[in-house]
Write a structure and sequence with these properties.
This protein is α/β, with parallel strands linked by helices. It contains 14 helices and 16 strands. It folds into two domains: about 190 residues, Rossmann fold; about 180 residues, Rossmann fold, CATH 3.40.50. The mean pLDDT is about 95.
Length: about 400
């Protein structure tokens, strides 16, 4: 069948690659350079499996800037465009999703789909109750939500080996969509859950907020150990050998960031209006507290130049959207500190007014202290300059 995907970030491009093994897939984007790269089978994002599949697999995948070309004749349109939460306005910006819905409705009203109107699957992060509102606005469209649970840099791998498939629909189109994902999975017996779209929206926000809670918990454990002069590594190991806790996702960091955790935690907190809570608000506040703790520790060292090693949050990813280190940089600059950045994914010599140093040796020489959210071997020779909370060299 023909499947259209709007948006070619981690979610959209991994799904496009996954489904193009068996179906005709059209991927819509608004950036010409990304479209050209995909059509030449060069991944615009860093993802080992996408790059591998682009090089080795026969994919029926076409990227386009033309939404009519992408959508016309499609049996499914998957929306994976970016959304974001604005804390100051207490508002979740879903305009990119509505833009796609407007285009689909316009094609439907114009008869471009003929007798078959595609099922519209929203994969973008949205507030709880959003699909219900969109169904009222677009009553002729079959819209439902299906959350994704993907890691940056491993998005296609996680689609090939899904922890679960959740579809916010009890209808025939929801069943067919689940079958599409299941047939492309390399695992047998992947759990599949069907529920209402509102419940599926809640699953997404609560799952990511739990992950943010876990990050914040071990960060606060690390803060306590540091202030009290204790060995955080030994404490974490002792705690996590309890199988109910688990020895994973427990490596301290500068804070949680990325595409999902910051916006999803704040969106869930906004959804708690008129609902009693303490914990959800604490998770949001804990991240800010952790970043300020890191800043205070750096300022106590009185460095002349603070070097920031990578804006990305972990190895194997080229994403630094909302990374904790960016807030730390802002706070350091507000305190009058000179900051330089080493980030190979930035081609220019500046990032938001901060000098980007492309030569590693020069970066090491001019930095009094080097902030590294995650340690790498190329920093071992200047270990005495490194400030990191990384205990395990992973995650």
């Amino acid at each position: 069948m023909k499947i259209a995907i709007a948006g070619t970030g981690y979610v959209g491009l991994s799904l496009a690659t996954l489904l193009a093994q068996r179906h005709e897939v059209f991927a819509l984007d608004i950036i010409p350079e990304k479209v050209e790269m995909i059509n030449h089978r060069k991944s615009p994002i860093q993802d080992e499996y996408i790059e591998k599949y682009f090089a080795e697999k026969e994919l029926n995948l076409t990227a386009t800037l033309d939404y009519k070309e992408a959508f016309s004749g499609a049996e499914f349109v998957i929306i994976s465009t970016p959304t974001n939460y604005d804390s100051e306005k207490n508002y979740f910006d879903t305009s990119s999703v509505e833009d796609i819905l407007d285009k689909i409705e316009g094609l439907r009203a114009g008869g471009d789909f003929g007798d078959v109107v595609p099922a519209v699957v929203i994969k973008s992060t949205i507030p709880v109750g959003y699909v219900s509102r969109m169904k009222e606005r677009y009553p002729e469209l079959d819209i439902f939500f299906s959350p994704e649970f993907l890691r940056e840099g491993k998005a296609l791998y996680d689609n090939l080996h899904p922890s679960r498939i959740i579809v916010g629909s009890h209808g025939e189109s929801g069943t067919r969509f689940a079958e599409l994902l299941k047939e492309a999975s390399l695992d047998e017996n992947t759990p599949v859950l069907f529920m209402g779209s509102t419940e599926a929206e809640a699953v997404k926000l609560f799952a990511n907020t739990y992950l943010a809670l876990r990050v914040s918990y071990f960060n606060e454990l690390d803060t306590y150990a540091d202030v009290k002069g204790l060995n955080a590594r030994e404490i974490i190991k002792g705690v996590c050998l309890d199988p109910r806790v688990g020895d994973f996702y427990n490596n301290p960091s500068f804070g949680y960031g990325g595409y999902c955790l910051p916006k999803d935690t704040k969106q869930l907190l906004a959804n708690y209006e008129n609902v009693p809570q303490n914990l959800i608000e604490a998770i949001v506040k804990a991240n800010e507290t952790r970043k300020q703790f890191v800043v205070d520790e750096i300022l106590e060292m009185k460095p002349e130049v603070v070097g920031v090693y990578r804006l990305t949050m972990k190895s194997g990813s080229d994403n630094f959207r909302s990374s904790a280190i960016q807030d730390i940089i802002l706070k350091l600059r507000a305190a009058g500190k000179r900051v330089v950045i080493y980030e190979p994914t930035i081609a220019g010599d500046e990032f938001e007014g901060i000098r980007v140093v492309h030569n590693m040796e020069e970066f090491k020489d001019i930095s009094s202290v080097i902030l590294a959210n995650r340690m790498e071997n190329e920093l071992k020779d200047v270990e005495q300059k490194i400030y990191t909370r990384d205990l395990w060299g992973r995650d």
